Amino acid sequence: MKIEIDDHSGFCYGVIRAIELAEKELAEPEPLFSLGDIVHNELEVGRLHKLGLQTITREQMESLYCKKILIRAHGEPPATYRIARENNLKVFDATCPVVLKLQKKVHQAYLESLSDNGQIVIYGKKGHAEVNGLTGQTNQTAIVAGSENDLSELDFSRPIRLFSQTTMSIKGFKQLQDRINSIRAEKGISSSVVFQVNDTICRQVANRESQLTDFAKSHDVILFVSGTKSSNGKILFEVCSNANPRSYQITGPDAIQKDWLAEAESIGICGGTSTPLWLMQECETKLKELM
Ligand code: SF4
């Protein structure tokens, strides 16, 4: 049986950068606190915990003083930096540069919307850390839409500036954009009323979809390794399932079931942008044991 680990799977640039920063600081004697899980993968978080990383919530951060905190790749709203200053916390900022640029764009659009009574819409997952960081750039006024069903809050007679969380699907973004356009047309909204579309989906993720489709089609069985909290993982697993119905999402090697492999001649192992390579390699080892 042939087993292949997808070359393109694994941590994206932003996550690698955050983990490297954490590992560097964990080599120092003072404790390091991560505001939320550094990556949406329970096993990688567990590995870093063993090195001494402590994950804390926003509430816990509020009562933390004079310590080192790490801001993960998803970024944080301005209020977090204010609390850090007030509590004399030393911030190690691993916000992905792509997210940082997006935060600045959203903030700029927010300032423009103040002058023309506009609305900021973020295509994303409500409550996701990156989305919280983005709504923080708009004084919490942005409307978060996960799908076309969430557009009821919008006033279509007013300007709309649309952005996307970096890890959403291009297809979903286009559908939302088309739906807004068709509602505007139905309501007879003049083209002079701003509808600005900012496709801010990260191409490290977006480019993965077509490549992953080819990979999933080229194997009899696909094992997609991903943490349960990863939104990117959910999207990419769906891509695999659409391309190959014999796709299984697993969190690690222990979840592999022998009956999935019946009559399979080739098995592909892949994952999302928060899946560590070492975990995919452990799945490969487990597959070899099961053969
Ligand atoms: S998916 Fe893209 S934007 Fe998000 S952390 Fe990774 S590199 Fe940065």
CA-to-CA gap between the ends?
A: 8 Å
Radius of gyration: 21 Å
Q: State the share of residues found in helices, binned by percent.
A: 40-55%
Number of domains: 3
State the low-pLDDT regions, or none: none
**At the fourth CATH level, what is the homologous superfamily of the largest domain?**
4-hydroxy-3-methylbut-2-enyl diphosphate reductase, catalytic domain
By CATH reckoning, the class of the largest domain would read Alpha Beta
What does this structure look like?
The protein is of the alpha/beta class. It has three domains: 2-9 and 204-290, 4-hydroxy-3-methylbut-2-enyl diphosphate reductase, catalytic domain (Cobalt-precorrin-4 Transmethylase, domain 1, 3-Layer(aba) Sandwich); 13-95, Rossmann fold, CATH 3.40.50; 98-165 and 168-201, 4-hydroxy-3-methylbut-2-enyl diphosphate reductase, catalytic domain (Cobalt-precorrin-4 Transmethylase, domain 1). Helices cover 42% and strands 18% of the residues. The strands form three sheets. Strands 1-12-10-11 form a four-stranded parallel β-sheet, with helices on both faces. The longest helix has 20 residues, at 97-116. The radius of gyration is 21 Å and the shape is flat. The model has no long low-confidence stretch (mean pLDDT 94). The site of iron/sulfur cluster has 14 residues, from helix 1, helix 5 and helix 8.
